Amino acid sequence: MKTNKKPLKKLPTWNLSLLYSSTTDPQIEKDVKAIERAHEAFAKKYDTIEKEFLKDPKVLASAIRDMEKMRASSEKPALYFYYLRDIEAENKDAISNIALLENRLTKADNKLTFFPIRLGKVPVEKQSEFLSDTNLLEYKIFLERIFDDAKHNLSIEEEKIMSLKSQPAYEMWVAGNQKLLNMRTVQWKGKKLPIAQAFNMLAGLPSAKERNHLNAEISAVLKTVAPFSEAEINAIFTNKRINDELRGYKTPYESTVRVYRNDPAVVESLVRTVTAGFPIAHRFHKLKAKLLKLKSLAYSDRAAKIGLVKATFSFDHSIEIVKKSFGKLDAKYPAFINEYIQNGQIDVMPRVGKTGGAYCSGSYSLPTFVLLNHVDDLQSFTTIAHELGHAFHTELSKSQKLIYFNYSMALAETASTLFESIALDAVYDSLSDTEKIVILHDKINDSVSTVFRQIACFNFEKELHETIKTKGFMSSDEIADAHNRNMQAYLGPAFKLTRDEGYFFVHWGHIRRFFYVYSYAYGLLVSNALLRRYRADASFWPKIEQFLSSGGKDSPENILSSIGIDVSKPDFWREGLKEIEEDIKKLEQLTSKTKKISAKKRY
After folding, report:
1. CATH number of 27-166: 1.20.140.70, 3.30.43.10, 3.40.50.1820, 2.40.50.140?
2. pLDDT band at 595 (very low <50, low <70, confident <90, very high)
3. Which of 39, 271, 401, 434 supports an S-S bond with 108, CB 3.0-4.6 Å?
């Protein structure tokens, strides 16, 4: 594959002067004070003895508009320092200001607690009046959510207690576990590696023997932290059970599903269907073992590579490819990309002091920023497309009112994986058969991790919550056994897990962000469905843009239904799983074809 290796004279970096000129810019303090005054003024205007916003639809509409204005400008100071910290880790001004700002802005935000709590407790008759009033028509869904959430709200004073206790009952436990992990090192080839670095190295090691060795070293270290993690898990899960009981949630995952505005029945259908589809993952892992020339796979092999793509992807060449492929969809996409580059809204290269990974951060009234760590390989190329997908979703969602700008976490990965797939299609045919096998393997591996592994994690979490609720306590050995039992279920017979690998629960942050993992599977399977329809009929793209422009104006199910995607039936999820299965068949055929060619050459 021909690639343009000539780099741009100067690769883009973030231009944070789009927000403020420096950490000492006097506008920062002016903006923070303005935010504090606005919150104080809102409380003074509406949290009165008369509470007219609970009686008069016109006053309520005015209050919601005032709240929107406040929200539109309240993120800028904090985001500036978060962004600065992410590109300059040692910037002391950024670190100190984040701590100070979080405290000030939390206090300001607490002044608004009264609004949704009091509004949610108005009588049912008054709720119906508000929902049918023409003055509040544009806020109907917002109000419906508040009234629905009110079933699980406590009193204002009780909500303050819940907020105060969250730090010692949850955050300090999780932070303590992470601190212990960060202090641990792994012995590897005569060196002491931070445990996070050891985890990052694992999948990239070339031999199964090395992966198993490092994996065993990591497991041994995790086991030393397990006694604390045992206490931490039992404490935070028990705290969640208490919170759920106080709020009247019937299942341990209901609160998360409600926050993401999903229908619990749809999520339960997703989990059941994917769990029943675990044999698809088993089929892939059997093929993976053959490609790695291993009789069986170890837990450390699940993300192992089967080869490398030799083609290089410089940033400027990658950008040209995505602009060309996305430009075929609509001219606005390359226009967005050009704007990001010209304005300094993309930070490209890795450097000392810059955070790792990649992300997109967007706000309703502020520029969208994309952070990358580009290293000229295929993964860097697909990462550009992935993060631009998030950026496009964010930009198009700005067509909504501020109150409906934020899209559900359940759909956050839909746009990103959709654009990533479109970009990968643009380069796939130009690669050799061997490289196609590598790419297809990596794509399936990612899909298996995103769909099957995350639902296995959901099942693991569910088992922990239910067991701790029933028994009152789980030992670290019991948690480790539950981990292995649920991981083995999706990995299948090709994998042989050791008892000590069960202690990977010690570092798995997902299970501490209760049940959010289902959103990965939900988002990817919806993305597959959209892509299938677009490939079958290019005229479907306006429907996709309708989805991308919907923000959070309705539930994910209703947004998708409006463009002909019905996720309420198990058949929808089965259709998405078949897409992964078709990729596996394609990989089997490519592998067989390559073997036949190799055999002829040897002959």
Report:
1. 1.20.140.70
2. low
3. 39
